[in-house]
Specification:
There is one protein chain. The protein has one domain: 5'-nuclease (Rossmann fold), CATH 3.40.50.1010. A five-stranded parallel sheet has the order 3-2-1-4-5. Helix 7 links the parallel strand 4 and strand 5. The protein has seven helices and five strands, in the order E-H-H-E-H-H-E-H-H-E-H-E. The chain is globular and about 40 Å long.
């Protein structure tokens, strides 16, 4: 799917796996995780209506993993979101993000999230993955490689940073 098909004036957001995981998980006893869960639920309830949301088959595949009951909850949320295609251009860009050392080899799936959002012209990539995606030390290199390959990078952010 191309976001141009959406014909909306709302900003576009790629929903990465950590968002749907935090949205649907049982409340955590870890205070930081619990806070992220609550921020995600609040964003979903109050802010998502201001955006056109998208996801990809990469997210759906990741959401299927783990506990079957939790996976079912994640997939129920994701089935309502339009899927962006994992194109050859996205695969090439993801490889460039890894080979260009914007992301480490073990974060190849994360590179694919960035690449799918990027090649489809998505404005924001929403995530709680602060190790590889919403990471200030990596952000400039991710953005530079996207630009060097002819794309406008998505703004990678957490729900607490993105309000309508």
């Amino acid at each position: 799917m191309d976001t141009a098909d959406a014909l909306s004036t709302r900003a576009t957001v790629y929903i990465e796996t950590s968002i749907v995981s935090y949205l649907t998980a049982r409340p955590s006893r870890d205070l930081l995780v619990a806070a992220h869960q609550q921020l995600t639920v609040t964003w979903w309830d109050q802010q998502q209506v201001h955006y056109d949301l998208f996801t990809s088959q990469v997210v759906r595949a990741e959401a299927r993993a783990g506990d079957p009951e939790a996976a079912q909850r994640r997939l129920a949320v994701l089935e309502r979101l339009p899927l962006l295609d994992v194109t050859d251009a996205a695969i090439t860009l993801a490889a460039a993000l890894v080979s260009g050392q914007a992301l480490p080899p073990q974060a190849a799936q994360d590179a694919l999230h960035v690449a799918v959002a990027c090649v489809h012209g998505i404005e924001y990539l929403l995530t709680w993955n602060c190790a590889h995606l919403a990471n200030a030390r990596l952000r400039s290199r991710i953005e530079q490689i996207c630009r060097d390959t002819g794309y406008v990078p998505p703004i990678i952010c957490t729900p607490e940073e993105l309000e309508g």
